[in-house]
Amino acid sequence: MTIQVGDTLPDVELRVMGKEGPEAVSTQALFAGKKVVLFAVPGAFTPNCSETHVPGYVTHADKIKAKGVDSIICTAVNDVFVMDAWGKTQNAEELIMLADGMGDFAKAVGLEKDLTAVQFGVRSQRYAMIINDGKLELLNVDEGGADKSSAETILASL
Fold first, then answer.
1. Model confidence at 51, in pLDDT bands (50, 70, 90)?
2. What SS3 state is found at 143?
3. DSSP H helix total and E strand total for the chain
């Protein structure tokens, strides 16, 4: 079942790239006491994600944070090395590039997508969330494209 507005986000251990290498981080630590914009993409380095989705959040990061957002997180079902390399190519220093390598978070919030027919395996749907102190305030899921989960749409919703 897909997470609903008002629900508490599940606590899942994921990975980020730290100064010494991959580090475990819990979603509870990322969300507790903070206002967070989290957006998910089907895969790092994919065309729409690299050409439109992430660049929008990079461009609008200051405006989003000026609305009281503590963190902007990009997640995908990719490993931490891929997410780190992708963040560097996207100049995404203002974003947390969160690796959901096994799709545990996508599954826990009910937003996984089976793309085995095109050799991608199980990935994440494209979506964006506004999370306030661990509770879901807004969920926009895209059926195609990235309009509902774009930085511009989320900025207008803050």
1. confident
2. coil
3. 6, 9
Domain annotation covers residue 135? yes
Angle at 21 between CA 111 and CA 46, to 5 degrees: 40
CATH number of the domain within which 143 lies: 3.40.30.10
Encoded amino acid at 10, one letter = P
Mapped onto helix, strand or coil, the DSSP state of residue 87 is: helix
Given 49, 64, 128, 154, the catalytic residue: 49
Residues of the chain above pLDDT 70, percent: 99
Q: Is 74 a catalytic residue?
A: no
Q: Does any domain span residue 116?
A: yes
What is the per-residue pLDDT across 73-122, written as a single tens digit (0 to 9) for each? 999 999 999 999 999 999 999 999 999 999 999 999 999 987 778 777 67
Count up the domains in the chain and report the number: 1
Within 68-109, residue ranges assigned H as helices are: 80-89, 104-108
Q: Does 2 map to a domain?
A: no
